[in-house]
Amino acid sequence: MSNYLVLTKSPAFTSIATAILVLLMFVVGGLFLPGFFAVQVVFNLLIDNAYLLVLSIGMTFVILSGGIDLSIGSVLALTTLLCGFLLQTWHWSAWIVIPLVLTFGFMFGIIMGAVIEYFKLQPFIVTLAGMFLARGLCYVISINSITIENDFFTRMSQTQIALFGGFISPSVLVALALLALAIFLAHYTAFGRAIYAIGGNEQSALMMGLPVARTKVLVYGFSGCCAALAGVLFSFYMLSGYALHAEGSELDAIAAVVIGGTLLTGGVGYVAGTMSGVMMLGLIQTMIAFDGTLSSWWIKIVIGALLLVFCLVQRMLSTKNHSLN
Amino acid sequence: MFEKIPLLKPLAALVFLILLDTIIIPGFIRMEVKDGQLYGSVIDILNRAAPLIITSLGLTLVIATRGIDISVGAVAAISGTVAVLLFSETISDNVSALHFTAKSPLFWAIFFAIGCAILCGIWNGLLVIALGLQPIIATMILMVGGRGLAQLLTDGQIQSVAYQPFFFLGSGYFLGLPFSLYIVAVVFVALTLLIRKTALGLFIQTIGINPVAARLVGIRAALLIVFAYVLCSLCAGLAGVLICSNIKSADANNIGLLLELDAILAVTLGGTSLDGGKFSLVGSVIGALIIQTLTYTIYSLGAAPELNMIIKAIVVVVVCVSQSSELKPIWCEVRSLFNAAPVKKSASTRL
Description:
Chain A is mainly alpha-helical and about 325 residues long. Chain A is about 75% helix and about 5% strand. In chain A, a hairpin with a 2-residue loop joins strand 2 (about 160-165) and strand 3 (about 165-170). In chain A, helix 13 packs antiparallel against helix 14. Chain A is globular, with a radius of gyration of 20 Å. By secondary structure, chain B is mainly α. Chain B has 2 domains: about 1-305, ABC transporter involved in vitamin B12 uptake, BtuC, CATH 1.10.3470; about 305-350, no CATH class. Chain B is built from 14 helices and 6 strands. The model of chain B is unreliable at about 90-100 and about 340-350 (pLDDT under 50). Chains A and B meet through helix 6, helix 12 and helix 14 of A and helix 5, helix 11 and helix 13 of B.
């Protein structure tokens, strides 16, 4: 019994619970839905959600630092359009375009972070403005969808890497590499530890002499860069740039982070947990698609309900920790 | 001296916009009377701003308690669909729209729609108070789930309405003015009376400035915060019904889409602090009117309507930065740079 209690007190509890729930859902899905138990279903889950994983990793860092970034979905859309415009209208090489859009995303985040940090504004309102700005810029570039016919992009879209009798796309490898990098950044570097410290208590972090301002601005830069990378992956996936791409995906990313066990107040959580959060969202969509009788709006309702459950669990756990103190 | 007058900045912005429009748009302030009804650009702006004004008024109270409600768009969608579903039958059943009979009376349909909105408000309030969730997350649950529910109600279809009396709410005229303006006026007067003539305004302000102190002086903060969320949802629900009445259908996917962002923008523009405490209902009305006038200006100038979002973004940042307390020392420093006399740099007060 006491062992059990210790387990629920661990900060990793919700993350582990989500991972177990994902496995459980997969088994249940396999039992009730014909053809669900296949390697390719798992791989498709990764292929379809590679962009969301990248987006959520950036969001995890922001939320860990105690902030929020609502602009990422729009930055994603803007990146797809920038790619489409530079590749199709100006015929630039993909090798110039991709680093350029990543830098653009980084700078976009840095500017928002600087405004938040130096004017002491709420992250929520500044990134909301960033969201408007990026979506608006999308329409300035093009109102219509731009089809991407670039060689490199088409190749990335069509390549299938054989694995365990199934296949994955290069985007999955990119997303998983970023996941590994993010785990390294969060747990084995001074930058990562500073983020946890700031999220835990900004005042204490300041007094410990940590570079609070620099870290906070960089976190938004990282998130913007992730959003731009997600945009590139999304362009691979859709082979088009469009202003309405991935509308509302910032909410999906927040949901994935919360379901993955990161505390919204900051300071507690795991990047790896976000991975299971993304898988959970993907599984819900896949199961509803497999079932075939349920309509797409059930996805929204189920995600809303899941968010509620995980917020409740987090709340219960944090009050338990408070009563300890 | 001017700093002492509240609402000067938003009012000046609105007046500036109107003057600009008067100069660059021919016939902007001209109004005509046709069939005893007033027509003109100004009336048009007011009529179109009605749902936004009502939503912003409700949201002001929530923001004043240090909260935020991002579910207003979803609540508008829910109550709009409920209202339409309650008295509409499928169009194929009624070939002739003129002889359309409502399933349930208009009053009950609206009553139930507002009831649903109030339930949404109670739900938000309970999540914030009883569970202690951050307001943005607590209301995000309803924002995501609520729109799904609204789509579930209409089965993903756009429900058309053919019931004439319902149109009166959103596009009818009464004594020469659009009826929606009377609704706005009633909501505004009711909320103002509630704030000014009862202690509610004072209590909400106290909660916003210092929740702990408010509790210690014996204000039942929990109950009042729930009440604020209920009022906010009620306003959003009313706005949803107005929108449905105006577009003569219920499109669960699009009613009140991005309404929460516009409403937050309107409230911020009106000088209400997002940190709670300082709030102004008149300011929110002005804020909403600024947004609608801005939209109108962009459309009538023939500029790409997409510019709207960029301008809104810039306006938000400028307004927030101008409210920031960090700006003053920076501004002083900039001024001292231009001073001829060598100014001794004072030690930075920042930690």
